[in-house]
Amino acid sequence: MTNVTLIPDITYAKVDGKVLQLDLYLPDIKGPVPTVIYLHGGGWGRGDKADNAETRLKPAAAQGIAVLSANYRLTPAAVYPAQIHDVKAAVRWTRAHGAEYGLETDALGLWGVSAGAMLASLAGLTPHDPALEGILGEDRDQSSLVQAIAHWFGPTDFVTTATRTPLEAHIVPPPFERALFGPGSDDEIAAKAREASPLYRVSAKAPPFLILHGDRDRMVPIADAEAFHTALSRCGAHSTFVSLGGAGHEDPVFNSALNIAITVAFLRANLVSSATSLATFSPQRGR
Q: Of 19, 24, 96, 285, which has the most beta carbons under 10 Å away?
């Protein structure tokens, strides 16, 4: 374990008069420091970059990884794909400015929980997609490609949830995706549901994934995570799946020392190896 310094409220973009900011949890280790951008949960309509600071973010940073916890625009004021534009802008900002804080910028990771896990996964599976890249920030010359994704108990298949029967919607509540996608006809919502589903974006080019999910999750059934892991594995991508017995959605057990250690070890292993390879073959850093 190492000491951690908090550098709060770093602006990474501005949009419609709103300032989008990051909090940096920086471990006291020799740089460049492996870095992950963290995305909070909250059904896309609530939550903040300071959530779980003491129980999750600082403990992770203390194990030797810089954590940039990002705010993104929330529903109902902002609807999809605004949130993905924000995430990709945060990645580009980190590539452009991370070295100023001693961060490794060649290889970057995303770590999301619940709604944030969906955003991390979709952003990581769609590098340089014109429809999702957005034009936020002043660092549009930078790449939004990431080299590792930690996905904690997030939804990945909106096609299934968008077509639930009333009974199914009651058993597995609530349909947050309706707020995420905004107003529209059933056909329009169905099209957005497929476009925004990480499950339908997997390919052999996907970065390595770590998926943690509780087998008692009623908000996002574990079958969702199992299908996502299977799809990644079948297409040739690297995916590690960890099922937490007895754990519900956002269960306190996710913040256990073991699960934090598993996540940090996965991120460090993939980011350090990727950064070494990229530095060897790329004449410019952060591009």
A: 24
Residue positions annotated with a catalytic role = 114, 217, 249
Task: Give the DSSP letter string of 71-121.
Answer: ----TTTS-TTHHHHHHHHHHHHHHHHGGGGTEEEEEEEEEEETHHHHHHH
Q: How far apart are CA 32 and CA 99, in angstroms?
A: 7
Cβ 225 vs Cβ 213: under 8 Å = yes
| Strand order across the beta sheet in which 18-27 lies | 4-15, 18-27, 66-70, 33-39, 103-113, 148-152, 209-214, 239-244
Distance (Å, whole) CA 184 – CA 177: 12
Domains belonging to the chain, first-starting first, are 4-280 (3.40.50.1820)
Q: What is the pTM of this model?
A: 0.92
Structure token pair of residue 223: 């079958």
Rounded to whole angstroms, the Cα distance separating 32 from 98 reads 9
pLDDT at 286 exceeding the cut of 50: no
Angstrom CA distances, 33 to 25, 26, 29, 95, stand at 11, 8, 7, 13
**Pick the residue with more confidence: 155 or 275?**
155
CA-CA distances (angstroms) from residue 39 to 1, 125, 189, 248? 23, 16, 24, 19
Rg (CA), the chain: 18
Q: What are phi and psi of 282, to 5 degrees?
A: -110, 130
